[in-house]
Design brief:
single chain; 183 residues; alpha+beta; 60s Ribosomal Protein L30, Chain: A; 36% helix
C-alpha cells in the first residue's frame, strides 16, 4: 500500500471517529422544541411560592383515647399525634398542654394518678418525635371533667365487669392536647 493511500485512510478514520464522538456526546441532550406556534408563546413567570402558614386564630388540638385502666397509647391513636406534630411545624408557640382524664370507675385518687400517667405517655411520645420537652406541660384531671355527663349513669354497677358502662365511658379516658400560641 502506498503511503498516500495509508494517510488518506487514516484521515477518513479520524473524521469518522470524530463525527461519532460528537453524535455520542449529544445523545443525552434535550432536543429543541419544533418551530411552531406553541413553542413561540411566551411563558408567564411563576410568582414565588409563599410558605403556607396556619391562621393565628386556628386552634391546634388533638384528643387521644385510651383503653380502660391503661396509660399506654393505642396504635390507632398515634396518627392523631403525628398529624398534630405536623401542624406545629412553622408555628411560633409558647407550650403544648397535655391534660389527662379518666372515667368514673375506680377511686378518685387512683383515677387522678391514671390520668397523670396518660398525660405523661403523650408527653413521652411528643418528645420522641422531636418536640422540646421543656415546652410540654402535663396536667391530670382524674374523673373530674367527664365528657359523657349523665349519658352513662343508669348502666349498672361501676366496675370493670360492667362492659356496657366501660364502653359508654370511653370518651372520658382521654388526653387533650392543645398548642398554646406565642403572644
Amino acid at each position: 500500500m502506498k503511503p498516500v493511500t495509508r494517510w488518506t485512510l487514516l484521515v477518513v478514520a479520524v473524521v469518522v471517529i470524530g463525527i461519532l464522538l460528537v453524535l455520542w456526546s449529544q445523545r443525552d441532550q434535550q432536543q429543541a422544541p419544533p418551530d411552531s406556534e406553541i413553542a413561540k408563546q411566551p411563558v408567564a413567570p411563576m410568582p414565588p411560592a409563599a410558605p403556607i402558614t396556619p391562621k393565628a386564630d386556628e386552634p391546634v388540638t388533638a384528643l387521644v383515647l385510651f383503653d380502660f385502666d391503661r396509660s399506654v397509647l393505642r396504635p390507632g391513636e398515634t396518627p392523631k399525634l403525628d398529624e398534630l406534630i405536623a401542624k406545629f411545624k412553622g408555628r411560633a408557640f409558647e407550650r403544648v398542654d397535655a391534660v389527662g382524664h379518666a372515667d368514673q370507675i375506680g377511686t378518685g385518687r387512683y383515677n387522678l394518678r391514671l390520668s397523670e400517667r396518660r398525660a405523661e405517655a403523650v408527653r413521652a411520645y411528643l418528645v420522641g418525635k422531636g418536640v422540646d420537652a421543656g415546652r410540654i406541660r402535663t396536667e391530670a384531671k382524674g374523673e373530674g371533667e367527664a365528657m359523657t355527663g349523665e349519658a352513662c349513669k343508669k348502666l349498672g354497677p361501676e366496675n370493670r365487669k360492667n362492659q356496657k358502662l366501660v364502653e359508654c365511658l370511653q370518651p372520658d379516658r382521654r388526653v387533650e392536647i392543645t398548642l398554646v400560641a406565642a403572644r
